[in-house]
Amino acid sequence: MTKSQRSKVRRIMRKSDRRFRKIFRKYGIRRSATPKMSLLMKASGPLQSAARDERNALAKVFTPTQLQQYDKIMRKTEDKIVRAAK
């Protein structure tokens, strides 16, 4: 990642993190706790919207290869969360 990309990505990720934290608070999801499927399902619309917006913003900064790597990481992360949810 270039220096310019790094700066832009940091801004995007900070904005996304604030948005995700707000959603988690609203739905009572604790980031450090085992995920509860019922809460994740209630928050799924806003979470998906936030994730889509994050990806769209990153797509303007990343190369196609970098975006593919990001997508792969996000799929793995989502799979871990779903497997861990009770």
β-strand number:
0
Q: Which of globular, elongated, flat, extended, rod-shaped describes the shape?
A: globular
- Terminus-to-terminus distance: 37 Å
Largest sheet: none
Number of helical regions: 4
- Average pLDDT: 94
For this entry, give a set of tags:
86 residues, mainly alpha, globular
Strand and helix layout:
Blueprint: H1 3-27, H2 37-42, H3 44-59, H4 64-84
Account of the 3D structure:
With 86 residues, this protein is mostly helical. Helix content is 79%, strand content 0%. It contains four helices and no strands. Helix 1 (3-27) packs antiparallel against helix 3. The longest helix is centred in the N-terminal third of the chain and has 25 residues, at 3-27.
Quick description:
It is built from four helices and no strands. It has helices at 3-27, 37-42, 44-59, 64-84.
